[in-house]
Structure formats: structure tokens, C-alpha cells
Amino acid sequence: MDYRIGEWVNDRTHGQQYRAKFLKTSEPTSLDGIEKYLGSGMIRGIGPVYAKKLVRAFGEKVFDTIEAEPERLREVTGIGPVRANRITAAWAEQKIVREIMVFLHSNGVGTARAVRIYKTYGADAVQVMTENPYRLARDIRGIGFKTADAIAMKLGIEKTAMIRVRAGISYG
């Protein structure tokens, strides 16, 4: 669930946009989203196989387990002290990147595209996507209007929103 404080504004250049003053995104609650994120290669020591094992072992509490009880990682078959330490260290290093990637994965963005989005927008990726997901079609190679629109729908932008209409005209 997202928690947002802000307002809708009418920008001369970009039309109607949501200007966030505060945005707090939560980690995904879908086990599939968690597994995709963990298996994405962003966390050293965890690939698709270990992502599945970790989600099976800890479910929705897997992030809390890695952060607060890293010694429990060794309960998973195949994770010894070296891999557990590698996972814990990588987890700590990736905090900001992780929050952005989890947000992107939770909103239907695959790993390759999520990496391109992060490389383009950096720490502002979540803000850019929530304010105007249609910028993705303009700014990110490999993302067209259809993909940006699907993301916008997941973010709750109405089919009749002016921001969508303008983007459709621009990319149509």
C-alpha cells in the first residue's frame, strides 16, 4: 500500500500531474513480487533458486528476516555462513535501490526495464513514475505507450485522465 500526500496540479508543459509532497511506498505483499525481486540478481548470493527457497521458508516476512534476523537464513537448505553473510552485506548496500526496484516490480515492471528506469532516473524513479508514468515511454528505450499505460493503470490513473489523453496523443 502507498501513502501519499500531495496535490494534482496542471503543468503548462505536461498537463495534469500529481505533485507529491510525501510518498511512502511499502514492500510488496505478493509472494510472486517478492520472489521476482529477490531472484532478479540485485542481491548478491540470491538468484531465482534461492529466491524461491527463501520465499518458501519465510513468506512475506523474508525481508524482515534478512534485515533483523539474518542468522535464520542458514535455516534454508544450501545457505551456509558465507552465503548468509554475502546476502546480509548485499542487502544493506542495496537499501535505496531495493525500495525502488521493489516498487517497480510490484507495479508490473520486469527486471531489465526496472534497471533501465533506475539508471535513467536514479533515486527519483518512484517519484517520476507516480507523478507521470507516461514519461517512461518518452525517456526509456524499450518502453512504449502501451507499457507505460499498463503501469499507469496499476498506479490507479483513470482511463479518462488528461495526463493519459495527452500521452496517447503524443505517442499515437
UniProtKB/TrEMBL annotation:
Gene3D superfamilies: 1.10.10.2220, 5' to 3' exonuclease, C-terminal subdomain (1.10.150.20). The active site is at 53. It comes from the Bacteria. SUPFAM superfamilies: RuvA domain 2-like. One of its GO terms (biological process) is DNA repair. GO terms for molecular function: DNA binding; GTP binding; helicase activity. Residues 71-90, 135-154 form the Helix-hairpin-helix DNA-binding motif class domain. The keyword Ribosomal protein does not apply. This is RecD/TraA family helicase. The lineage of its organism: Bacteria, Pseudomonadati, Pseudomonadota, Alphaproteobacteria, Hyphomicrobiales.
